[in-house]
Structures are given as structure tokens and as C-alpha cells.
Design brief:
Elements (H helix, E strand, L loop, with lengths): L10 E10 L3 H16 L5 H18 L9 E9 L3 E8 L7 H6 L5 H7 L5 E7 L4 E9 L6
Antiparallel strand pairs: 1-2, 2-3, 3-5, 4-5
Helix pairs in contact: 1-2
Length: about 150
């Protein structure tokens, strides 16, 4: 499986995750926990798993994944030099509607709530011509997360 293109801080370790349909929702937490253990993530594992689950759920709902039955949803967990955790999830939609509001924590939804709580310290997305879609990236920093 091809690794995702790093953006920003240099990546020291990566763990690609493949989530086959129709069990992607259930397997995101299982494979995510394994990946976080292998990467020796020192931050909040429950918060990281929640972020991964929300990104996978959003990809399934908004990323035209249902139209691509039989595909594998790709994600990647990475640790940077600054010990940040990058959670990347690919989908098949080249757009991210209302991205500025989501990134600012404005509106409703699980992803917005994670941004507001600062469980996600940065949120970005970029077009991914390999899948004719996009990759959504959440950045987490090891530290205290507001309740």
C-alpha cells in the first residue's frame, strides 16, 4: 500500500491502515489501536481513536465511499519529529463542504466538536489525484485535552 504524502513536519514513523467495506466503521478503532501501539503514541489513545472514527465516519457519509462498494478505505497514522500524531483518511470526493467553518469549530457535528474541544490541534485537507478524491488530515498533540 502506498504511503500518504507528508505535508509539513517531517514524519518519523507511519502505520497505514486499510479498512474494507462494509466493516470499516467497526475496524477503524481496532486497527487504530494496533497502529497507535506500534507507533508508541504517547498522547491520548481514546482521543486519537475518536478522531480516527469520526474521520472514517465522515468519509463514509460524505466521501462517495458508498458509491464505490467493494473498495478499501485508506487511512494512515503518522508520528512527526515534533511528536504530533497525523491521522489521514482518504475518500472519493474532491470537495470538503464548509471546511472553514469546520476548522474554526463553527456549526454542529462530531468533527466540529473535536475541533472545539481541541482534541484536534489542526485540520487540513488536500486533493488526492491518485484516488480522484481527497485526504483529510487531523493533527493531534500529546497533552491535555479539554473535557
Amino acid at each position: 500500500m502506498a504511503r500518504l504524502t507528508p505535508i509539513g513536519s517531517p514524519i518519523t514513523r507511519q502505520h497505514p491502515v486499510e479498512l474494507a467495506m462494509p466493516t470499516a466503521r467497526q475496524m477503524a478503532r481496532v486497527k487504530g489501536r494496533v497502529g497507535l501501539t506500534m507507533l508508541n503514541w504517547h498522547g491520548s489513545v481514546p482521543s486519537a481513536l475518536q478522531v480516527l472514527s469520526v474521520l472514517v465516519e465522515n468519509a463514509l457519509q460524505h466521501g462517495h465511499v458508498a458509491a464505490n462498494t467493494g473498495v478499501v478505505l485508506r487511512a494512515c497514522l503518522s508520528i512527526t519529529v515534533e511528536r504530533q500524531l497525523l491521522i489521514d483518511v482518504q475518500d472519493f470526493s474532491p470537495r470538503f463542504t464548509n471546511f472553514r467553518d469546520v476548522r474554526s469549530g463553527i456549526g454542529e457535528g462530531f468533527l466540529i466538536e473535536l475541533v472545539r474541544r481541541r482534541a484536534i490541534t489542526d485540520l487540513t485537507w488536500f486533493a488526492d489525484p491518485r484516488v480522484q478524491g481527497k485526504t483529510v488530515r487531523a493533527v493531534l498533540t500529546a497533552g491535555v485535552v479539554d473535557p
